[in-house]
Specification:
The complex is a heterodimer. The radius of gyration of chain A is 14 Å and the shape is globular. By secondary structure, chain A is mainly beta. In chain A, the strands form two sheets. In chain A, strands 2, 4, 5, 6, 9, 10 and 11 form a seven-stranded mixed β-sheet that branches. In chain A, strands 1-3-8-7 form a four-stranded antiparallel β-sheet, with no helix packed on it. By secondary structure, chain B is an all-beta fold. Chain B has no helices and eleven strands. In chain B, strands 2, 4, 5, 9, 10 and 11 form a six-stranded mixed β-sheet that branches. Chain B has a five-stranded antiparallel β-sheet with strand order 1-3-8-7-6, with no helix packed on it. Chain B is globular. Chain B starts with a strand and ends with a strand. The chains are: A mainly beta, B mainly beta. Chains A and B meet through strand 5 and strand 10 of A and strand 4, strand 5, strand 9 and strand 10 of B.
């Protein structure tokens, strides 16, 4: 059973450019969350997608956008890159049981390392 | 802004020693607490998901406890081995309507010396 996969592994961009990161969830999972991990910090929540809709958004500017496809895979797009966007971007997938009091485990991919020069 | 704190920031122990570290989170509006182990160059690995006050979970030599009333969780490793070297992250989820995000601490980096 393939786990969560992300592509590319590494990426180098220059300021002002745009980038698209991709995530394939674990088999059977329908929910994808994206996190940004800057150096020395814990992962920060960007947004979560469920049923092809953004279900919740963290404290990130509109330059960060996403999409979820019918096969549950997801993309994270960042426009007008600036130096501070350099980070490890993690994708996590889960299956939303939707039951009160039941917490879904989020399974993480290995991340995409983005460097903005 | 939710605050999740982990201590210590880093820890060096000898092989065979037992160790523990702490995750502190808001004691109000609790929904769930997650623990992850993250080895260098790998994906974070889910260890435990805890939802009830007083929960105790165990996986091999690793165990965790949860106190939601005072807002903390302990992770214990018994008889540490070099393969336990990793960063251990905790993540809090609150019970607010429409709240699905995990708020992570900065992690505790454990190094086990052979």
């Amino acid at each position: 059973d393939a786990g969560v996969t992300q592509s590319p592994t590494h990426l180098i961009k220059t300021r002002g450019q745009q980038v698209t990161l991709r995530c394939s969830p674990k088999s059977g999972h329908d929910t994808v969350s994206w996190y940004q991990q800057a150096l020395g910090q814990g992962p920060q929540f960007i947004f979560q997608y469920y049923e092809e809709e953004e279900r919740q958004r963290g404290n990130f500017p509109d330059r960060f956008s996403g999409h979820q496809f019918p096969n549950y895979s997801s993309e994270l797009n960042v426009n007008a890159l600036w130096l501070g966007d350099s980070a490890l971007y993690l994708c996590a997938s889960s299956f939303s049981l939707g039951l009160a009091g039941v917490e879904d485990t989020q399974y993480f991919g290995p991340g995409t390392r983005l460097t903005v020069l | 802004i939710l605050n999740v704190e982990q201590s210590p920031q880093s820890l060096h122990v000898q092989e065979g020693d037992s160790t523990n570290f702490t995750c502190s989170f808001p004691s109000s509006n609790f929904y769930a607490l997650h623990w992850y182990r993250w080895e260098t160059a790998k994906s974070p690995e889910a260890l435990f998901v805890m939802t009830l006050n007083g929960d105790e979970k165990k996986k091999g030599r690793i165990s965790a406890t949860l106190n939601t009333k005072e807002g903390y969780s302990y992770l214990y490793i018994k008889g540490s081995q070099p393969e336990d070297s990793a960063t251990y992250l905790c993540a809090f989820r609150d019970s607010g309507a429409g709240s699905y995000q995990l708020t992570f601490g900065k992690g505790t980096k454990l190094s086990v010396i052979p």
